[in-house]
Protein: DUF7847 domain-containing protein
Organism: Thauera humireducens
Amino acid sequence: MNTHRRHPPPPAPGDVVPGHALQWLADGWRLFLKAPGVWAIQALILFVILAALGVLPFLGWAAAPIALPVLVGGMLAGAQALDRGQALRVDHLFEGIRRHAGNLLLVGVFHLLGALLAALIAAAIGGSAVLTGMVVGAVPGAGVAAGGMMLGVLVFTVLWALLMMALWFAPALVMLHDVAPLDAMKLSARACMHNLLAFLVLATLLYVLVWVAMIPAGLGMLALIPVIAGALYAAWRETFAPALPALPSPDALVADAPPAPPPGDVPPQT
């Protein structure tokens, strides 16, 4: 008998008050304070893994972006465990590998392809402008080339922002609600566009916090990365979770399982 549980498609994202971006960060900090040592170890392992993947010959430039959603999914599983009153473990970081490795890796592949496509489009615009400027020559040509390069940078920035919107909720939707990778990215972009002001506020706050965290030799990132994971979980919960049926965690499933019969006891035959 097929026991795979089918989940309804996720609903449209709800409305979010822009000021709640600060509350998400506060929730992330609250989750961090519940297990700061474990969170810091997770962040350190994440850095080491991404750095090791980045120096791989030939494929290092592609491996880290593909693996990132898998590790983010694991940190989200840890945030969910803490939110449910369970203990955070270091190996929660690898929960994405155990539960949704294929789908999370696909999110990473789409992330990489989107970044390459954005770069190619921007390069095509800038390159065509430079060639046009060379044909025109002299001062007018320099103006055309400079304008085209600026347009290429602007186009890349817009496409990159859209890609970040598609990635923001995708690991949470895949990891915490079994949404298909491409559907998760579409829904994530839709949620961010639907609540654009809230996520602009959040992006601004994160930009400032990253610079602050980098001041003490980058050590502040060991706290900021878990806080961002907790903020992402809080943002997902407010934007989607009120309308979604909750999924039990693997730990909860084990806890709710009926106890095994004592040795020697034979269940009655029917």
